[in-house]
Design brief:
Length: 163
């Protein structure tokens, strides 16, 4: 097969499950409270946040521009829309990620993500499922799953640090 005949979009789906020692209401609040959400979703060692917004409602958006490491690394963007929110139970969103180069956004992927919160004794079982389309080999499903797993570990630290 020639390079021109190969597809320019790769598709993938993954699911990550976690159990937290916090109620579904508390885990939901960690998503809906702008300060808490920013701490576990956007902040981290070596991350620089250039822009950040969050409007937690159906039809609302969140996202921004970020850089990992020093100024020689790429700036990334995340543009997300909330599609469905059921308090203490479910959040469904769609998002586009990519790089910012020369002031222009270059999309690398588009995804649909579902977060389910299920009561599990005194805690919560969280099920995160993502379906993605990755453009021109810019990203891959294993890399995205790794990033989302790290993000959900950060959520666990947030829940422990801010009960």
């Amino acid at each position: 097969m020639t390079a021109a005949a190969r597809t320019s979009v790769a598709h993938g789906t993954f699911t990550v499950e976690r159990r937290y020692d916090a109620s579904p209401a508390r885990v939901f609040r960690a998503h809906s409270d702008p300060a808490a959400f920013r701490r576990w979703f956007a902040e981290g060692d070596n991350w620089t946040i250039h822009e950040w917004t969050q409007d937690f409602r159906v039809g609302g958006h969140f996202g921004g521009r970020f850089r990992f490491g020093d100024e020689s690394n790429d700036t990334w963007f995340n543009d997300t829309e909330y599609l469905d929110i059921v308090e203490d139970r479910r959040i469904i969103l769609s998002y586009v990620m990519g790089r910012v180069a020369g002031g222009e956004k270059q999309r690398a992927s588009a995804s649909l993500a579902t977060t389910e919160l299920i009561a599990d004794g005194s805690g919560t079982r969280l099920i995160y499922t993502e379906q993605g389309a990755f453009f021109e080999g810019a990203d891959d499903i294993a890399e995205r799953e790794h990033g989302c797993t790290a993000m959900l570990e950060a959520l666990g630290r947030e829940l422990e640090a801010h009960p």
